[in-house]
What we know:
Mean pLDDT: 85
Helix content: under 10%
Strand content: 25-35%
Structural class: mainly beta
Low-confidence stretches: none
Oligomer: single chain
CATH architecture: Roll
Radius of gyration: 16 Å
CATH superfamily: Alpha carbonic anhydrase
CATH class: Alpha Beta
Shape: globular
Number of strands: 9
Largest sheet: 9 strands, mixed
Amino acid sequence: MAMQMTFNGKPGSVSIGGKAFSLKKLRWKTPSEHTINGQRHPVELQLVHESDAGSGELAIIAILYKLGAPDSFYFQLKRKLAELAADRCSYGEQDARVAAGLVHLRSLEKRTGSYFRYMGSLTAPPCAENVYWNVLGKVRQMTKEQIDLVTAPLPAAAKQNARPVQPLNGRVVTFYNPPNSTISFDI
């Protein structure tokens, strides 16, 4: 179980290796499912993109968060996340849903330049192996209050919803670090 936001229309896209992918949903994992130098972070936001060619391939951009300054993206979600948290539906039997309305994604587009990429799998069943994972090299910040807002709608047992860190199993992780890129860890 995870917090997620789905979109109507085509709010964004990404191109990888000449293949076009459209943004379909945002998904939050706590703690992060990815590590950098063995370190997990309190939150990972996954921007899930589906192949425009209908191949079933996915491209997921993962943004890692640490405790710190407020992140502007979450200000616009505050009221809706509180509304979700107040919904007392029966978890496991039904999903709580709230229409978020117009959400500006521009603040998620802060460019870092550097990122890790590997071919991997989904982190929840069916764990399909057709995912282009892209983990941004700059760890962003959010406050404890913002982390609590993201997890508040979840039952206690689902607040820690990340899959355990998995072995590479022969996967090659490539780090891209163009000149003048910002990173948040030691190389």
